Amino acid sequence: MLFRIVIFFQLLLLSVSCTAQYESPIVGPVLTKAYGVTSHVTRKGDGWNYETRRRELKMMSTLKTSWCRSNLDAYNVVSQNGVMNSPIFDEVYLNLQENGIEFLPILSDYYNGQFAWQGDWYEKYVRYLVGKYGKKSMHWEVMNEIDHPNSKHNMKNGCSDYVKSLKLSHDIIKNNNPTAQILCSSLCDLTYSFLDSLSMLGAYKYFDIVNIHSYSDPEMLITHIANLKDHMNKYGWTKPMWLTECGMSSVSKPESETNKLFFTDLLPAAIKRLGNTPQNTIVSVLSDSEIGYSAMPEDEVNEWLKPVYKEVQYVSFSELSKKTVASCPIVIVSENSEFPMSHFEEILSYVKRGGTIVLSGGTPLYYDLQYTSDGNMTKKQVNDAYYSKLHMSALFWWLDKAKKLGVPKVPHFVKNNFSNYKWNFNDTYSSRFMGSDQLKGKDSLITLIEAGDNKYKGCVAGIYKLNSDLKGNVIFQTREGASNYFKEELEQARRLPRIFIMSFANGVDKVFWYNFRSAEISNNDRESHFGLVHKNLTPKKSYYAYETITKMLPDGSTYPKLYVEGDVYAASWIDSQKRPVWAVWRRKGKKMEKISLDKNSECYDLFGKKINVSSKFDISENVVYFVGQKKNPILKE
Q: Nearest-CA neighbor of 94 among 125, 54, 65, 127?
């Protein structure tokens, strides 16, 4: 199985800064066989793709996909009596050839209780495959995600074992065909710590292409790829780069794992407790394109806020400073534990004037998002350093004061007298307790949700109703671990072209989407919902987004040139018909932008539908293509 790994801390620590203009380097002449997918066409059985391979490969060909990647599993080759045969692989190679699709085979790292570096099975297995398919496969990937913890922890001698197997594979493949290209094991830990060890052992002498996986936000690829280039420079080697797995699961998250009921049930109850009704309330969402910060995803705003409140608007930090409280009475500031504290004073000033802020999840204001001079965003833990300024206080279970009071790490009791909203507490979906130690004047703490155990009960959601030097309110909940809500299939489609454009613009030669067909074993199985098509091969939205990007940025196009300013991304290239093309999108949310179109340019949406664009247009997470457009279509205000 091809493992997924989500690099949570990278999503938090490594991000593209939007405080300064970014331009990608100039790379390559033109894209050549640049598009691929992973599909388990060499594996039989439920959840795999051998039985559907013919139909799948035909659909891949229609999509202008040049590559299919799958495993040459040792269990399909090596038998107990030592006789080697591979009829499954014979069929797959034939079907690939019929559809004009290149194959990227993955060599096994494990068979019959032994890793590749244990026993003699691996050498026999590789010699057999290379001898039989060496003229058909010009590229070979030497094992999948060998740096995955499930693999790494079983390697007795760490990287040295893998390097021995890599060198053995290299020698066998190159002796058979010196022009064959070898990919190192796909790397899923994008800190590249494992690659550091490989480089110190000289492993780069035994592969031709460095091979990574990424399932993070598309825009994170700038940082990932820059780090990989820095790594190669550090050790004095350079190789072409391939991204052989990327994507997103479209499995629907249960409503109970999201904050939906906070916004549709508890927040309205809090507004009523403050003397108003949601039907008469304007709710603003903090979203600042200058630094790329947004308090909520657009789907949540559209699905949860707009049906409930009188009006929903976006507000930047500079706009917030100018707004009257009457025109902007409630502002959603964050949905997790992070906030750019360089803008804390704008929030504090707003609360002093009587405004109400909403801290809608996680440990409030616990991490400071900082923008560094080298173009990155870092996350610094500041604990409760800013709480006293808002007259808030906390009882974190790990502190001595909380321990003396018996504050539980994971509550099991919960009581809500104001609405129907609750969540189940466990190690992931836990909470933090807030207190009244810092209240001043006539301030008060209104508990909306109480939680705890038989020793301690305290506030995990509530209102700081301020009536001192601060005249506003803080509505909060401290729920940990809630998931963002997306229209999952649409979000998958939104990310796809951005991943391809970002990768090509930063020097990646080939990009493989993971994967082609969703196994859809169950509605809750994340792993089986990554595909471009459903289990029955009907297309998902991402299928049409893939079809569109291969038309707009086909093989033969120049590598895109990427421009970033704020959270707006624009990429330009010359397509295979010598037409100038621009793609434009925003990393988060949407905002109206001035548009200037060349006389003969045409505009297409994420799915290739021709659309009409006026002098102003909403730029959002959905890529928009401008064909025949010579200059950047976005004009500054």
A: 54
